[in-house]
Specification:
heterodimer, A: about 220 residues, alpha/beta, disordered N terminus, B: alpha/beta, six-stranded parallel beta sheet, elongated
């Protein structure tokens, strides 16, 4: 069996694996004027030239061909780039929304809503501070995002937690099936930075995946 | 170094960069402005130089070899094609021997044959040129629009067929499509050709459809619709390299060498309804 090019001179690869990298994105601020450097993202993905780009977009939105409905990073950078290169975009998001809402009927509803709003405010503020993919994908940013996400889910209760987990499970399964359908390829996964931490942990456990930092893909 | 020394040093530097015209020294602010402009101009010149070199070295142009026995028709084609700044006719040859020799020593992106010979001569020329450079895409422009002739030309490996009365815009679009390796049939030919294939006897000389893997069948169905590798990859959510690998297996099973041949074989064998071939 022929090994993919990146394994040709690397003796440590006894079994050819899919080379996967996760790139956190700022999905929360898509509809705002986020201070996010799209040129950096463009040149980064252009230089990486992955075979497959698992994007956190809903398949129906993608297949409808109406890219105006997609987040700005996809609309302005990744979709145009895929048309100019051989990068294939695979939509992997579930139909669930990414917004975490406090369900009605929870005790101390007002206080919970207020705290969730404050946490969202902190998240957005952090996202505004992060001006590049490098900043968004730093360990500190990832840990803070993850912590805020956990706190928000705790405040919202078990139903919101279930919805969030279900959305994540579908996202993960879609990524997994993409990797299994087309093994031994270079795959870049672009996800909401709140999913990044969990996704990296789960992908590390898969034997068929060689998880690397996004700049090493 | 104390504070006074630093101040003296700055004053010295300022004096050094002050501009004098004759006996008159320009004011510090004008000197700064002048120096800034000078540095900007130098930076701009350097940047312009690199951009110019980059443009010069970038292979953006599509180089075309035209094989046409009539000088006026050939030169006319050259003028029409070169109206698009990215298309350039690098060679214009008049006869079959010249075409073979030129192709042997050059690497055009597309070969256009203007079929004035008709019938089997044109088929032989396509075969000859394909045997020299199998990967160079080739397009035929001809008067003869009979489905049998179109089939004969496409089966030998041509990527496109255009009538001589095609619109200049269609011609340039076809050149771009053929240069990408896509199968291009002019709309005036496509309908009759598909009807012809639909009514033709089923060809049993190739393996049956079931001998292809399900993925190869899917890829072939998209290929028959005239989709490029990238478009097929996007439709199936597979990488382009995987699609190319499926195509290579497909070619080996069908004992053919090009996507055009694959499409013709599939249509002749009746594997897909002709209506599928409308992109």
């Amino acid at each position: 069996m022929a090994l993919p090019p990146y394994t040709e001179n690397m003796m440590e690869y006894s079994v050819a694996k899919s080379r996967v990298a996760v790139l956190g994105m700022l999905d929360e601020t898509h509809w705002e004027s986020a201070q996010y450097n799209l040129d950096t993202l463009r040149s980064l993905v252009k230089s990486l030239q992955p075979d497959l780009l698992c994007a956190e977009i809903v398949a129906e939105d993608w297949q409808s061909g109406d890219i105006a409905r997609l987040p700005i990073e996809y609309r302005e950078v990744l979709v145009p780039l895929s048309r100019l290169t051989n990068i294939v975009i695979v939509p992997v998001s579930s139909a669930y929304g990414d917004e975490i809402l406090v369900p009605k009927g929870r005790p101390l509803l007002g206080l919970r809503v207020l705290l969730v709003r404050q946490l969202n405010f902190i998240l957005r503020w952090m996202q505004r501070l992060a001006g590049s993919p490098k900043a968004v994908n730093s360990t500190t940013f990832g840990a803070l995002c993850h912590t805020i996400c956990i706190l928000t889910l705790w405040l919202c209760g078990p139903a919101a937690q279930r919805d969030w987990d279900e959305a994540y499970r579908m996202l993960f399964n879609n990524i997994l099936s993409t990797i299994s359908n087309d093994p031994m390829r270079r795959v870049l996964v672009t996800v909401d930075c709140r999913h990044q931490h969990q996704l990296i942990t789960d992908l590390k456990r898969l034997p068929e995946v060689d998880l690397v930092d996004y700049h090493l893909l | 170094m104390n504070w006074v020394n630093i101040r003296d040093m700055l004053a010295g530097a300022r004096q050094k960069y002050l501009i004098t015209i004759g006996e008159t020294a320009l004011s510090p602010s004008l000197s700064i402005l002048y120096n800034t402009m000078r540095v900007s101009l130098a930076a701009f010149s350097i940047a312009w130089f690199f951009v110019a070199v980059d443009i010069r070295l970038s292979p953006t142009e599509i180089h075309i070899l035209i094989v046409c026995p009539q000088t006026l028709v050939g030169e006319g084609l050259r003028l029409l094609i070169e109206q698009d700044e990215d298309l350039r006719v690098s060679e214009l040859v008049m006869n079959m021997l010249g075409a073979a020799e030129t192709l042997r020593h050059n690497e055009p992106d597309v070969v256009i044959i203007v079929d004035e010979w008709g019938g089997s001569d044109c088929v032989a020329l396509v075969q000859c040129l394909k045997s020299i450079k199998p990967r160079v895409p080739l397009m035929v422009i001809a008067w003869d629009l009979s489905p049998a002739q179109v089939q004969a030309i496409l089966t030998t490996g041509a990527n496109g067929y255009l009538p001589l009365n095609a619109d200049p815009g269609d011609l340039r679009r076809a050149v771009y499509a053929v240069s990408r390796g896509e199968l291009t049939l002019h709309r005036t030919i496509a309908t009759g050709f598909l009807d012809y294939l639909a009514n033709a006897d089923v060809d049993h000389s190739h393996p049956s459809f079931n001998e292809l893997s399900p993925r190869e069948q899917e890829v072939l169905a998209f290929l028959v619709q005239g989709m490029s590798d990238q478009e097929i990859a996007q439709a199936l959510f597979l990488s382009v390299r995987t699609i190319q690998s499926h195509l290579n297996h497909l070619y080996a099973k069908l004992n053919i060498h090009t996507r055009t041949e694959a499409a013709v074989v599939a249509l002749r064998a009746g594997w897909f309804p002709p209506s599928l071939n409308q992109k």
